[in-house]
Amino acid sequence: MLLELENVTLQYGRIQALHGISLTVDEGEIVALIGANGAGKSTTMRAISGLRPVASGSIRFNGEDITRLRADLRVVRGVCQAPEGRGIFPGMTVLENLDMGAYTRKDRNGIAADLERVLTLFPRLKERAKQLGGTLSGGEQQMLAIGRALMSRPKLLLLDEPSMGLAPMLIQKIFEIITEINQQGTTILLVEQNAQQALSRAHRGYVLETGNIVRSGTGAELLHDPAVKEAYLGVA
């Protein structure tokens, strides 16, 4: 088991955002976390990446308890996030943004190989290598955010709303690339409002409602679950 959350609670001031959630991600999987706005999906991601301290419960990664570990040290261990809203550096070029993704690494040959891999996955980024991040389209910025995360060579890639604000054709493309990244050996935890795309690509999934996990199963099981279909797929 690569990642395990056990009874994790998290608070923003007096507001409890997560109510004792437990989930697992096995090596090689794509696991989807779906739910409405405000359900606690991004909060779960911040807890895993160390951007928000948990109030109680534990987070284990690759056999190690990382519940209290600093966020930067989690990146070194192999946990890396492409955040909601992309969070690229607008005043830096595409190549400089990608280089920032490898800031914890010293292996120059490995970094060069991973840069080549990212530019092969995202040919648009290769075409715009010297362009400033802030001048890219929304879809290109999303590709850059994922590419930058891959430059840390993560064991677990956290993707927070990768399809947000993208045109349907680009959404399809982003999800094809996510599948390809997984097939190349990277484990993925995916937070996504586009439940149809997420569950059709995921090996397993969890449904979050107001900080509680209310359903779990294989991607196919959740896709065909009547309650999930009604709530998240627009099918009565």
UniProtKB/TrEMBL annotation:
Keywords carried by this UniProt record: Amino-acid transport, ATP-binding, Nucleotide-binding, Transport
Q: Which Pfam families match?
A: ABC_tran
Enumerate the spans annotated as ABC transporter domain: 3-235
Q: Report a single Gene Ontology molecular function.
A: ATP binding
InterPro entries annotated for this entry? AAA+_ATPase, ABC_branched_ATPase_LivF/BraG, ABC_transporter-like_ATP-bd, ABC_transporter-like_CS, BCAA_Transport_ATP-bd_LivF, P-loop_NTPase
- Organism lineage string: Bacteria, Bacillati, Actinomycetota, Actinomycetes, Micromonosporales
Protein family according to the UniProt entry: Belongs to the ABC transporter superfamily.
The protein here is known as ABC transporter ATP-binding protein
On whether ATP-binding is a keyword of this UniProt record, the answer is yes
Q: Which organism is it from?
A: Planosporangium thailandense
